[in-house]
Amino acid sequence: MAELNEILGNERIKEHFITAVRHKKISHAYIMEGDKGSGKKMLAEAFAKILQCEGREITGLVESCGKCESCIQMEHHDHPDVIWVSHEKPNVISVEDIRTQINNDMAIKPYSGKWKIYIVNEAEKMTVQAQNALLKTLEEPPEYGVILLLVSNVNALLPTILSRCVQLNMKPVRDAQVKDYLMKTMQIPDY
Q1: What are the residues whose beta carbons fall under 8 Å from the beta carbon of 182, sequence distance 6 or more?
Q2: Do residues 178 and 8 make contact, with C-beta atoms less than 8 angstroms apart?
Q3: Measured between alpha carbons, how far is 40 from 150 in angstroms, rounded to an integer?
């Protein structure tokens, strides 16, 4: 799993997350919009790792330590307080998915971390009923709850959802930046 400072591009979004952590102003809900493959999941995981890091509280740094139990759990994708919302139907996130995996679960305090983080990939697949079910949680979130909605098309979300979330728009990484990274870091020749 990549650290926030290792992720190429989207400097504005990374800076937003760093500032939020530094000033302890974490929003209860974020919408990360970008094309498929733009790095939404990678940024969401890196942000969740920083939030859950126990070592960060000791060092005072705004990055994950990579050594504490939370960081190790994040690396293995088995942190009990970071929930990837899943759905059985391929193109639909149902109201039942939202109720069981977010609404009912968020009422239970975090197991080991400071936060309970819910990552909803392809959130534009939520039905209108599912979005309305999520709305109640967005209106009255517990102080430890953070929801990250990853979308390719923000217009598929209800205006009431949009108004209650911080919207972050992903930008494509420039070709020159990718080429530079591949050549310098990965030692891949330019041909």
Answers
A1: 188
A2: yes
A3: 6
CA distance 120 to 122: 6
Total-model pTM = 0.88
The interaxial angle of helices 11-22 and 40-52, nearest 10 deg, is 20
**What is the spatial distance between Cα 41 and Cα 145, in angstroms, rounded to a whole number?**
18
Instruction: Report how far apart, in Å, the C-alpha atoms of 119 and of each of 43, 83, 136 are.
Output: 11, 6, 17
Amino acid at site 37: G
| Kind plus residue range of the DSSP H or E element containing 43 | helix 40-52
pLDDT, block means (10 residues), the chain with 191 residues: 72 91 94 90 94 80 86 94 92 95 94 94 96 94 96 96 95 69 72 69
DSSP assignment of 84-148, as one string?
E---SSTT-B-HHHHIIIIIHHHTSPPSSSS-EEEEETTGGGB-HHHHHHHHHHHHS--TTEEEE
